[in-house]
């Protein structure tokens, strides 16, 4: 897992910034999972004030990944989570699963995820 802390922002700004970063790469958000709300429905205590997982896909990268190994379907769609914890409500955290570096497509996927998170973190500080 790779994490990026975003000081000086808030959840809403981070959300908008992440969507902008994804769309800026010519990609489309496929789904957004309201993770904190899902946990609240279980009735158990949640560490999150707010948490969401954003899923998206690059058709070209997906084609390359499964061309290398059909089992790499597990990386599609790509996902970035972002959250604010109750313990530290002034810091937004963006995180993603690192696909590894065992193949060209995994390296490209990792670079894409890193680029998106870095750009979103910079934009989030603008507090849209």
In short:
With 128 residues, the chain is α+β, with helices and mostly antiparallel strands. The chain has one domain (2-124): TT1751-like domain (TATA-Binding Protein), CATH 3.30.310.70. The chain contains four helices and five strands; from the N terminus they run βαβαβαββα.
Structure description:
InterPro entries: TT1751-like_sf. Strand 4 and strand 5 (91-96) form a beta hairpin. The protein has a five-stranded antiparallel β-sheet with strand order 1-5-4-3-2. The chain has 128 residues and is of the alpha+beta class. Helix content is 40%, strand content 28%. The chain is globular, with a radius of gyration of 15 Å. It has a single domain (2-124), classed as 2-Layer Sandwich (TATA-Binding Protein), CATH 3.30.310. It has helices spanning 11-24, 35-40, 59-68, 104-124, and strands at 2-7, 28-33, 48-57, 78-85, 91-96.
Roughly how many Å is the radius of gyration? 15 Å
**Biggest β-sheet: count, sense, barrel?**
5 strands, antiparallel
| Distance between the amino and carboxyl termini | 27 Å
Query: Which stretches of 5+ consecutive residues score pLDDT under 50?
Result: none
Overall pLDDT score? 94
Q: Count of helices?
A: 4
* Order of adjacent strands in the largest pleated sheet: 1-5-4-3-2
- Report the sheet-strand fraction: 25-35%
**What's the total number of strands?**
5
> Helix-strand pattern, N to C?
EHEHEHEEH
Write the CATH architecture name.
2-Layer Sandwich
Secondary structural class: alpha+beta
Q: At the first level of CATH, what is the class?
A: Alpha Beta
Helix content: 25-40%
Protein name: DUF302 domain-containing protein
Organism: Dechloromonas hankyongensis
InterPro entries: TT1751-like_sf (IPR035923)
